Amino acid sequence: MRLRRAFILESPCKTDLKILSSAAIPTIWVGYMNPVQPFCSIKGNVFCHTEKCLSTSLTVTGFLSRKHCLRLLGTMPSRYYVHRDDNDEDERKRKREGQEGYIYFHKSRGQHILTNPRVLDSIVRRAEIRPTDTVLEIGPGTGNLTLKLLEVAEKVFAVEIDKRMVEVLNNRVAECGLEDRLTVICKDALKMDFPPFDLIVANIPYGISSPLIAKLVFGAYPFRSATLLLQKEFARRLLANPGDSAFNRLAVNVKLVAEVEFVMDVSKKDFIPCPKVDSSVVKIWPKTKVPDVDMHEWWAFTRTCFNKKNKTLGATFKQKKKVVELLRRSQMMDSLKDHVATRYNYDDYDDKEEQEEQSDGEHCFPSPCSEKDLVSFKEMIAEVLKAGGFEAKRPSKLSIEELLHLLSLLNQAGIYFNDRTKGKDVSNEGFVASYSS
Ligand SMILES: C[S@@+](CC[C@H](N)C(=O)[O-])C[C@H]1O[C@@H](n2cnc3c(N)ncnc32)[C@H](O)[C@@H]1O
């Protein structure tokens, strides 16, 4: 049968629909075929990237029932999917929300559904799931990935913040008779303790990538690996090595405790609605042997060094604000308690950036340490940097081993980065929060 106009939708499986694409269509867009309803009546709600295919005819060898299609799609056919900004005031769209059959994808929640079955299969294959594994999925959405995970894992915990998605997911999994192996937790993944799991496999909302990865690799969760779909640029940063322009604080912190492996790039066209950015899949392997370092001290140290990652360490540790903070944190101020508060005069400080930082009010002193103590503390840091050969080096170019060495030299000299006046914080909450926007 030759169709002049095809109703193009997303579906996990082209063979199920028995659609053969013409050579002109590089990606096969398949889905719910409704030969009765004329295409033009639904055109308004179809996403633009599907429209590319409209003029191309498809050779169709069979149709699926609407019910079967809905099961494959997990929810309504895409004419019901509307992507709406949270500040979109369109009354008609608002009215439709809540009506049966309509589901809105919210940008603020990163709701971009991965629909390419080949990509879904590759993610599951590269995750190397064993039949006895419990998998944690963050942000299952309508369940395209969840269903694939349920085919191979013993159990899946899916954490989803959006109640509407949870409903769709539960219905879809129940229709496949797999509900016994799925536990859906309707919570914010950043604000909960995860149940025990062996692996994480997820297409996460990109807005929470940093805090979520920090939570996973520094949380008390022993897991084999995390296979994650991330924004491409973000993945490049995680994969970056010292000296690469993308190497940053998160990369250095993750590399301390985990190995990161590139798996594959994923085009934005493989999502509905189509996001603005491309994606990549990476696999994170927690290291079995982690360097013996106080993590809170390490996090505070990398925060200080990577704040201006391309500045030389000599210049970074000359900044008055940094030195005063370090002096306070290193508990070297006991002898200075009686000093009269001093507001520093920055006129003699030839560092524009730092002056700007001061001007936001947050970092204004008075501080109870004297200029004399500050100068000698500064000299002490400079000596440590010089002795270790770090004065002219830039944090962005240092290996983990070099950074660990520098930290131990500074600590040996009594210079600390974590606030030792506050007592020991054993949780990683502050650290995870520091990556939240
Ligand atoms: C990129 S979509 C992925 C959907 C699905 N996994 C897929 O591949 O098609 C991200 C999902 O994460 C959910 N989400 C967003 N923020 C979340 C959070 N803080 N905790 C848990 N889920 C969240 C969204 O509602 C959305 O369903």
Layout of SSEs?
Blueprint: E1 2-3, H1 14-17, E2 19-20, H2 48-51, E3 58-60, H3 66-73, E4 81-84, H4 91-96, E5 103-106, E6 113-114, H5 117-126, E7 134-138, H6 144-152, E8 155-159, H7 163-175, E9 182-185, E10 199-203, H8 209-218, E11 225-231, H9 232-239, H10 249-257, E12 258-266, E13 271-272, E14 279-286, H11 295-306, H12 313-316, H13 320-329, H14 352-359, H15 371-388, H16 400-412, H17 429-434
Parallel strand pairs: 4-5, 7-8, 7-10, 8-9, 10-11
Antiparallel strand pairs: 1-3, 2-3, 6-13, 11-14, 12-14
The structure holds S-adenosylmethionine.
S-adenosylmethionine binds next to strand 6 and helix 6.
Binding site for S-adenosyl-L-methionine: 112, 114, 139, 160, 188, 203
Organism: Nelumbo nucifera (Sacred lotus)
Protein name: rRNA adenine N(6)-methyltransferase
User: Rg to the nearest angstrom?
Assistant: 27 Å
What's the total number of strands?
A: 14
CATH class of the largest domain: Alpha Beta
Shape: elongated
CATH homologous superfamily heading of the largest domain: Vaccinia Virus protein VP39
* CATH fold-level label of the largest domain: Rossmann fold
Number of domains: 2
Question: What is the average per-residue confidence, as pLDDT, rounded to a whole number?
Answer: 74
Enumerate the spans where pLDDT stays under 50 for 5 or more consecutive residues. 1-84, 333-366
Helix-strand makeup class: alpha/beta
**CATH 2nd-level architecture of the largest domain:** 3-Layer(aba) Sandwich
As laid out across the biggest beta sheet, the strand order is 9-8-7-10-11-14-12
Helix proportion range: 25-40%
GO biological process, one term: rRNA methylation
Domain Ribosomal RNA adenine methylase transferase N-terminal: 119-288
Family: Belongs to the class I-like SAM-binding methyltransferase superfamily. rRNA adenine N(6)-methyltransferase family.
Biased composition (Acidic residues): 347-359
